[in-house]
Amino acid sequence: MATLIAIDPFNRIEGDLRIEIEVEDNTVISAKSSGIMFRGFERIMSGRSPMDALVITPRICGICSGSHGVAASKALAQAQSAEMPENAYYMKNLILGIEVVMSHLSHFYLLFAPDLTNPRYKNLSVYETVNQRFTAMKGSSVVMALNARQSALEIMGLVGGKWPNSLAIQPTGTTSTMNLSTLTRTIGILKEFQDFLEKRFLGCPLNEWLDIDSFDKFLKWQEKSAHSGSDIVLLLSMCLAAGFDRIGKGPNRYMSYGAYDLPDGSTWLPSGFFETRLHSLDQALIKEHIGSSFFRDAVEARHPLEGVTAPLADKSGAYSWAKAPRYDGKTVEVGPLARMIIADDPLLTDMVQQMDSSVMTRMFARLREMCRLTKEMSLWLEKINPAEPFYASPSSRFSSTGIGLTEAARGSLGHWMKISSNLIENYQVVTPSAWNMSPRDEGGQPGPVEQALTGVYVAEPKDPVEVNHIIRSFDPCMSCTVH
Amino acid sequence: MHNLLWLQGASCGGDTISFLNSEQPSALSSFEVLNINVLWHPFLSREQGDDVVKIFENILAGKTKLDLLILEGAIPHGPDNTGKFFMFHGRPFREWLADFCKHAEMVIAVGTCAAFGGVVTGHENVNEMSGLQFLHNQKGGLLGSDFVSKNGLPVVNVPGCPSHPDWIVETITAVLKGWLHMEDLDDFHRPTVFFSKLAHHGCPRNEYYEFKASAVRYSQQGCLFEFLGCKGTLCESDCNERLWLGRTGSCTRGGFPCIACTSPLFPDKQRPYFSTRKIGDVPVTLPLDVPKAWFVGISGMSKLACPERLKKNAVSFKWIT
Predict the structure, then answer these.
(1) What is the pLDDT of residue A1?
(2) Rounded to two decimals, what is the model's pTM?
(3) N or C: which end of chain A has fewer CB within 10 A?
(4) Is B189 left (phi over 0), alpha (psi -120 to 50) or beta?
């Protein structure tokens, strides 16, 4: 006999989510992921000046406003054929990078780790330490991480002025500049943040962990007593003891738009579509489906440039306010794991070969990216030259389309803009969690998280902690999803 | 011990993020020093699903005292005033919220959305959203203009997109200590202690403003009022005195214009955001309280008196000696 279990609200994520699972003999046989709110940002955009996108779209999401700013600025830059001075590349990368680092840090300590204190794990040897460090809102590491986050915030203040919702990010550069003082101070603050990572999180110099290029070496490294007290070792022990390497398998197809633009036209993290091997990405293959979504349209699936947002709350068979984006008709996983695989990170590539996409690989990909970004940001800071400009004069003329693609903390973020008579005619946003948390498409194909939940063994259906881990390993942002 | 319930309506979560940006006290230690017991917070609490519903039911049954209700995010009324744009555990969110407000000793709306409707009311409120007790500058909202919570105060509005963490923590402090009275709120129910100053106060570009030495494009050091859309002389907030993010920044310090995000009329009435609308040489929207004739006269005089030092730096991205 199958039982239906709803987790509603499913919180300790960003935004509002309802999860429904059907359980038979302690095994999830189907799952539904529902975005339970409509906010209507795409309708707000229509008829406005294109530049308004910089003000309105960051407000889609309080945790990744900078990523929306970057996507909007890139869409505008394309529509204006705008170019930026070299400094602006590094400034924008710093804003995006700091936002992503803070998001990953908050995700681990505030959102994911509290589930590790579930009484289910009380027989594990690390349980006492896990509780002492990761109890929601009170654990010692939680408090230390939030303090370390303050350093990151100060960098954001110096580079972006205000956050969330900085307007420093513009199509032709940044409104903010750096001088000798702000640059020196920023370098100092980033070092403080790195100190937290090295002392509490890793238990070793940043480069020592970043140099680890296989899972085998990672296991050998953690046996050294010097690292035994670090949070990452604690997570590793928990993952292996609780079997996080075996739950949460996604579609094994990954996508990244690429991010952190560099002056030579390349990106620090590459773009691509990965299915068995890496393919180049073609955004024309993206379509948003609405078969199970509360939207009305004559057509079941459209490319975002032709997208339509017409809410229909009483649509029969629909269960989510999220549309269902598909790449070439297929579900794909986006986020740090996708980025690390497409960037060919040696440690994560090796881990995925051994244990597939899973709660464990997803968590370590996110934390790997946090560390890699911290290192990269210090290199970008060295490239900024306060004597050179940060901003170029914009053109006030817009061509008819602008597409802005970037990577937010949670994955691929795209803005598609159609312009006529210098006003926005249509604006469509496809967010990372729309990819991961999407409902079924018109072919009945479940979204990545729905798929990852199916087949999972839940020891106690009344407290399905396995489900919590799987969903939170994707770090859903439902605010973005139901924009 | 004060019981706190924090809810999110049509929200981006940005006010929670801003609250987490709090420094002294930090967000987590503010609960401790203010003796706050968090009944539930959607981003921070361990409880989920049915456990949350139990917490809710206990409040509505009067079994758990609700000392403080905080809302961030607007209230969805659509489509066609059904509330179905946000069904929370099978029931329109606005109905849960109206019930909680009846039980709450004190109610605080954090952020411009919860206070006045905010960004999601853009495009003539096509999405049918409102604040708790206001829609834009009109009283009403979800609760109606006559609503007062059990402590006798209307909803205390702490706008900002996002709200400054100090405004949030200090308002909670004042409310819990019983220091906040009707006379401490302005016409839009905002604590005057934060919202009677202007974002202009403390702006590092003030000398440029005095002499009308204006930046002509972004990243330059001059005043952003004359050409680049800055609403700092109209926006009621103390951003540039208080500063953001570890006291490191503000909008104008980041080189971009204030867009008056604490205003009940945000986001539609502040447009254009990035340029200043003018008739002839005179901006259509003048600084708050300044008579137009005097402004025009003073501006002309100050431009003539402008030192060379300011003229050249106003249009430079770096300091020229």
Answers:
(1) 81
(2) 0.97
(3) N
(4) left
